[in-house]
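A reminder from the course coordinator: this example appears on the midterm review sheet, so study it carefully.

Given structure:
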């Protein structure tokens, strides 16, 4: 059967996984987030169930994948495991320093850098993005606060992707692997004179475009490419030596995990080399599980990346009356998404690119951190199975490490 493929903007950034983790499936295990950040801080987390962790990683048939790795850490115990191979051609096993495409986890880095600038008085989160980037958005659009970009309450209308750039089959995805986009071209897909989807700040809808604009803001204020600004402010100070932003370079350099896509006839094609400029500031980061663990630990520690007061803002959810456009509770704060699984509330971000799916999550008090990356071969709703299994294993009560 030919797999169902979703459009670039509907799946880029792992919105599928984000939607999953709000109680759509397995309601006994998952709960929709509440609006109070302090109410979500768990008093404790259960001991690790290493059998469940191992089982979650090892099943590469539901859904089909070529590799998976999971790193769990924090004060309540640690574990690391892998399954599959990093390269089907050579049979090379996955190593802890192998890089992979982490997709929308990029947004955590962008949000952290913008919040740093706000703490330094260089960005006003309540100021419209149009004031910082005059002429970038159509004049007919309502003023959108910087904070409303970061928490996906902007109300931007849907983009009009040119038919020549649309990809509805795996073959079309690979045909466009060398396409180059500029940020200006991405923003230009927003329609002129279109009504806002909703008044900014009144609803929430996950949109990659919000972070394209936030990255353009980062460049405008710092005078540097957004990736270099994040490198100077976050990557180098934290020693994240395996994390980078690809720009127009389609390759993963050094040891890395290959991603594959199943074609309409079932053949697997290597999708590792792919120009990520279509994602840019919303989803082009390359990293490792170790670097992402180090990043979230530093990010959630007051004073390491953000001052305490600014870090608190990162965890602020929209007002209780602000809900997702489908009516479910809001689940995004500034650069983070949140979910409660088995009574454990996690904060972090999911990410997805062609052939790759990942997440970095942690309890706010860092009793538990988790980073996973796996390589699904089908870009469709079947990815829900792995996300559910990983989330349940990470939070499942166990008898302790064994």
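Designed residues:
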């Amino acid at each position: 059967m030919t797999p169902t493929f979703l459009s670039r903007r509907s799946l880029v950034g792992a919105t599928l996984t984000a939607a999953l983790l709000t109680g759509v499936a397995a309601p006994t295990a998952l709960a929709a987030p509440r609006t109070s950040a302090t109410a979500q801080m768990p008093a404790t987390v259960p001991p690790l169930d290493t059998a469940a962790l191992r089982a979650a990683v090892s099943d590469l048939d539901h859904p089909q994948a070529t590799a998976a790795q999971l790193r769990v850490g924090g004060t309540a115990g640690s574990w690391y495991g892998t399954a599959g191979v990093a390269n089907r051609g050579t049979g090379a096993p996955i190593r802890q320093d192998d890089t992979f495409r982490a997709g929308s986890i990029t947004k955590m880095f962008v949000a952290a850098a913008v919040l740093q600038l706000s703490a330094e008085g260089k960005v006003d989160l309540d100021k419209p993005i149009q004031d910082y980037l005059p002429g970038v958005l159509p004049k007919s659009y309502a003023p959108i606060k910087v904070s409303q970009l970061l928490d996906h309450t902007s109300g931007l209308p849907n983009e009009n992707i040119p038919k020549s750039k649309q990809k509805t089959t795996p073959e079309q995805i690979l045909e466009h692997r060398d396409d180059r986009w500029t940020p200006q071209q991405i923003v230009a897909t927003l329609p002129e004179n279109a009504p806002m989807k909703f008044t900014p700040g009144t609803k929430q809808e996950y949109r990659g475009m919000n972070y394209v604009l936030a990255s353009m803001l980062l460049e405008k204020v710092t005078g540097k490419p957004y990736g270099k600004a994040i490198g100077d402010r976050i990557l180098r100070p934290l020693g994240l030596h395996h994390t980078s932003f690809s720009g127009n370079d389609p390759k993963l350099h050094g040891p890395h995990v290959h991603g594959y896509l199943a074609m309409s006839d079932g053949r697997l094609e290597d999708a590792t080399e792919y120009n990520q400029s279509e994602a840019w500031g919303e989803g082009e980061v390359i990293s490792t599980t170790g670097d992402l663990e180090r990043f979230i630990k530093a990010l959630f520690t007051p004073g390491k990346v953000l001052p305490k007061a600014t870090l608190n803002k990162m965890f602020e959810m929209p007002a209780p009356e602000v809900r997702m456009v489908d009516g479910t509770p809001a689940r995004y704060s500034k650069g983070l998404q949140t979910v409660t699984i088995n009574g454990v509330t996690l904060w972090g971000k999911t990410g997805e690119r062609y052939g790759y799916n990942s997440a970095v999550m942690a309890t706010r008090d860092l009793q538990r951190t988790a980073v996973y990356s796996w390589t699904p071969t089908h870009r469709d709703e079947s990815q829900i199975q792995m996300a559910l299994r990983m989330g349940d294993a990470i939070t499942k009560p166990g008898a302790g490490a064994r």
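The CA atoms of residues 196 and 342 lie 37 Å apart. The longest helix spans residues 208-222.
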